[in-house]
Amino acid sequence: MNGKQQIAEQSRQWFWQAFIDLLRENDYEKITVGKIAERAQLDRRTFYRSFKGKSSLINWYFQKMLNQYHEFLYQQSQPLSVKKGLTLFLNFWLAHQKTIQLLIKRNLSFHFLEIWTKEAIENYNIFNESWRSNGTPSEITYVETFVTGGLWQIINVWLIKDNPENPEQIVQIFLKSLNQLAQHPTGIAQSEKLSNNN
């Protein structure tokens, strides 16, 4: 980054911190761009050079976090097992718990899922699990989407707690649940049969 880019990035960071400070004190709907700029001690025009509004500011934060996560992920030895990948994922977000917890409480964490779903599917190739090779491309995409959505819902339930379980416990719960689903296909089939009869 050149000097101008560094200044612009620093301004974006100040806007984000101002937004988070305001979000701790107010409902999302009551926060205006003017208030964010005032808290950041920057001009509204500077805000609009980087963001269209509050939503794009939130998207910027999640995109920045995802870029950091993927950079960290690709520094690991590959291919990764699902267990290792899950542990890395959970530890990464645990380090940002206070911010994520606030966004969850304000019902704003959905911004992350919109960004992450596409990027996660593009990055699943670094895992060595059989579900990535068994099935048609369409079937694999559905499985990957299911895993992605499930993981983020786990984050929402987990990090909203003031004293969340350690990541290793969450990984065990997640893997146990997947194994139970795989070992009881008759239960799923029975549910489908009942649904079709209604």
From TrEMBL:
<feature type="domain" description="HTH tetR-type">
    <location>
        <begin position="9"/>
        <end position="69"/>
    </location>
</feature>
<dbReference type="InterPro" id="IPR039532">
    <property type="entry name" value="TetR_C_Firmicutes"/>
</dbReference>
<dbReference type="Pfam" id="PF14278">
    <property type="entry name" value="TetR_C_8"/>
</dbReference>
<dbReference type="InterPro" id="IPR050624">
    <property type="entry name" value="HTH-type_Tx_Regulator"/>
</dbReference>
<dbReference type="Pfam" id="PF00440">
    <property type="entry name" value="TetR_N"/>
</dbReference>
<dbReference type="InterPro" id="IPR001647">
    <property type="entry name" value="HTH_TetR"/>
</dbReference>
<feature type="DNA-binding region" description="H-T-H motif">
    <location>
        <begin position="32"/>
        <end position="51"/>
    </location>
</feature>
<dbReference type="GO" id="GO:0003677">
    <property type="term" value="F:DNA binding"/>
</dbReference>
<keyword id="KW-0238">DNA-binding</keyword>
<protein>
    <recommendedName>
        <fullName>HTH tetR-type domain-containing protein</fullName>
    </recommendedName>
</protein>
<dbReference type="InterPro" id="IPR009057">
    <property type="entry name" value="Homeodomain-like_sf"/>
</dbReference>
